[in-house]
Specification:
By secondary structure, the chain is mainly alpha-helical. 47% of the residues lie in helices and 0% in strands.
């Protein structure tokens, strides 16, 4: 799984759960294994804008 915010999958999962709790959002956070499997199937290109 690619690192999000420089954190491994499990840490990213916990971070998102904490953020949603602090924001009082009742949203499910998929576990890191589900995200990892889905990321293998996705081809995401994020362009870099020169500053």
């Amino acid at each position: 799984m690619p690192k999000s915010c420089s954190m491994p999958g499990r840490q990213t999962e916990g971070f998102l759960e904490s953020i949603f709790t602090l924001m009082k959002l009742d949203l499910p956070v998929p576990d890191h294994i589900t995200v990892s499997r889905r990321m293998r199937k996705m081809d995401i290109v994020m362009p870099v804008v020169p500053s």
